[in-house]
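RECORD TYPE: protein structure
NAME: Helix-turn-helix transcriptional regulator
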Amino acid sequence: MITKSRLKVRSSRALKHQIAMAGLTTKELAESVDITASYASTIINGKANPAPTTALKIAVKLSERLNKNMGVNDIFFDVTVKKNTTLNSIEIEEVS
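PREDICTED:
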């Protein structure tokens, strides 16, 4: 069984507000964390679940710009994806 951790945006609306308050556009945020603007947009809108490293980069960038101590858990929650390699099924469960 393979376990792959992904993170989901807690609130798209709150994240959009934080990005605006940080004075960033989606494109600027994307460039600063080394992802495409398109991928950043899908993360922000809750349609994609970034890897922990990407989520951490986003949290760090927003923390720097907002002069706030924000962690990954302030923006994202953990979704663990387990894939059974023999059955090729995926189970998603929220991890607290």
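COMMENT: The chain has one domain: 2-94.
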